[in-house]
Design goal:
homodimer, mainly alpha, Farnesyl Diphosphate Synthase, 2 strands, about 70% helix, about 0% strand, globular
């Protein structure tokens, strides 16, 4: 197993952001002005009036994977740029629509787009970004059609995952396997696509594209498992969210599903808490967290996170990826899965 | 100019619906169960509980155009089926999202999907249909990638058109040209794509595909102009909507834009009515309709409808389209543009 050093990650992400920004901004500028304005606000480039804001938007994980995926097969970084732009556009499409669906009112300490511009423009801007992503690939030199199919299938999986996640809300019998499959769709599919799209654009062999896809897919599942751990045991000063936030929202995350389906008295007590009407008190939340842990939900999730991270890194073996690129991929993998609790 | 006989249209539409339904239902069945349920309800195939409903959904104009577009270049009807399915999926994506954006609570005498299932599932089902449309084309035999690009560009234009339409709401200086351009995007682009996609799938020359596209594009503008006439002067027993419905909603339709920008005293009086706070009375609506007519808005719209219908039919000249196919296309054109006021 590659030793993963996350300290390189910020440099890799900064480089990807810089390489992607001009093409990303040019793509968004193709939308009708009202949709470009909503999108620029959502990306963190502008305020609600369209005035430029400092900063460069999100952390560019997906663009970084897309660029490294071109480098992984010996292609110039530039060949991955349309892929980097496309996956970032689809990521932001899904954030725009999910924020509305989930009723989230804040993102990065600002009102979400649907709160700032209304649900109609937020939905339409999301639609615009999704279609723009396909256009960017279809118009690109290189194997744009192949990349577009990869992105389309990943987007279909992402939508399936969101649907599965919503359907978990009304169920108490969600299994760990279902949770991991949902994470594989909702989080894994787009990271998988990002990790393979640069190679697809550059015309790499399908077997190499498939292995890079597997890297991103497993990385996505590991990422989600870690996120689920943070959602219960993450310290508010680190996560920026209230303690026990996922329990507060009664999410069926991996640790909760593991606990609820563990069959013991802890599972029964947790199910009763989750079925309690009204907001849970801080004492009830602390109790729920303890029940999840005592039912084995925490350790099970830690094992799954580690297992999928190892699967991800093993996918890179024997592909002849340049050492420097492999080091960068491993750094991103470490960065996304070893965040502080 | 081809003499257009709309009496053939119902047969053409029925045949298209029958040829498309199995593949369309199979495509929708690929979505996650909650999204397939919302979509089946929206298409008119099922009630909110998923129980089958009699009837076969909408009038299948776009599928009919797609199938005829394959026949137009001498290909078997079957080669157009993936195109027919894809344009119908995109049409329903746009209805699902537009109903939410426009706050429409009824469609075909039933609650709209967002009223029946909530905004979240309606948005996600729309997303699902859009991506499914791309998948159907990308997986098809024939020139699926070429067809997918045609559909993607048409969808981008459709989204632009919806954005333009929304932005007209707050403006009083919308010109007839802007209205027609908006209609060319919002209604014309997908009809254009439908009219060309079967030919594209079948590998026709680009010049033929472009001419079929121009047919559908102009047909869409003519269709929208007729719809705008019906929106003011259509009889409620024919349109199923209240009299003067577009005026009630203060739409900037073609006749209204023509009147508002006509510069005379009728324009000023109409602008004052449109600026009146609160609901307009029946007397005010009757006055508004008269002002639009006296300012020349009605005749201008009739001229534009006729002009674009003629442009549409002229696009079919000299392409060597089999006479029977051309007759069917002309019947659909007549059917969509000569509805009773």
């Amino acid at each position: 197993m590659t030793v993963a050093d996350s300290s390189l990650a910020p440099v890799v992400l900064d480089r990807a952001r810089e390489a992607t920004q001009p093409a990303l901004r040019a793509a968004v500028a193709r939308l009708e002005p009202p949709l470009a304005r909503v999108s620029s606000y959502h990306m963190g480039w502008a305020d609600t009036e369209g005035r430029p804001m400092p900063g460069n938007g999100g952390k560019a994980l997906r663009p970084a994977l897309a660029l490294l995926s071109a480098e992984a097969v010996g292609a110039p970084t530039g060949e991955g740029v349309p892929g980097a732009v496309a996956v970032e556009l689809v990521h932001n499409f899904s954030l725009l629509h999910d924020d509305l669906m989930d009723g989230d009112e804040e993102r990065r300490h600002r009102p979400t787009a649907w709160k700032a511009f209304g649900p109609g423009l937020a939905v339409l801007a999301g639609d615009g970004l999704l279609v723009l992503a396909e256009q960017v690939l279809m118009e690109s030199s290189g194997q744009g059609d192949r990349a577009a199919k990869l992105l389309t299938d990943a987007t279909a999986a992402l939508i399936d995952g969101q649907s599965q996640d919503l359907s978990f809300e009304t169920r108490m019998d969600v299994t760990v396997e279902e949770c991991l499959a949902m994470a594989g769709n909702k989080t894994g599919a787009l990271l998988a696509c990002a990790s393979a799209i640069g190679a697809a654009l550059a015309g790499a062999d399908q077997v190499v594209v498939d292995r890079l896809y597997a890297f991103g897919h497993n990385l996505g599942i590991a990422f989600q498992a870690v996120d689920d751990l943070l959602g219960i045991w993450g310290r508010p000063e680190v996560t920026g969210k209230p303690a026990w936030n996922d329990l507060r929202q009664r999410k069926k995350s991996v640790p909760v599903a593991a606990a609820l389906t563990s069959g013991g008295s802890n599972a029964t007590a947790l199910a009763e808490l989750y079925a309690t009407p009204g907001d849970l008190t801080e004492d009830q939340l602390a109790l729920a967290a303890r029940l999840v842990e005592e039912a084995g939900g925490r350790i099970r999730t830690e094992v799954e996170a580690q297992r999928h991270l190892e699967l991800a890194l093993a996918s890179l073996d024997g592909l002849g990826i340049p050492e420097v690129t492999r080091t960068d991929l491993a750094a991103l993998a470490a960065f996304t899965t070893t965040r502080e609790l």
